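Team,

Forwarding the record for the chain on the shared tracking sheet. I've put the sequence and predicted structure together so nobody has to dig through attachments.
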Amino acid sequence: MGKAEILHQIKMAEEHVRVVVKEAEEKRKQLQADGKRRALEKVETADADLRKQSDARYGEAKRATDARKQAVLAEGARKAQALVLRARTNSGKVKALVLSEFERAADA
């Protein structure tokens, strides 16, 4: 084996190494891109799930708040109705009291 053939084999080996390194670098870049894409998909999926959970909890809280609001409003309406009824019931007594006080003042 001559010097020229040895140099040729070295150059061929170096070229083979460059090709293998280039392929490995391309493979690494592809794997990195795939990893980033999968990570981004997972983050987007997690965000969507979180949004769904948040919306569901908000909806539940809103329904509970609305139900409580309706209950408070109904209780207020019931109390107001009771006060109106009591006022109507007492209006006769008040009229009689005012009339008797007026008559007493007029008789005095």
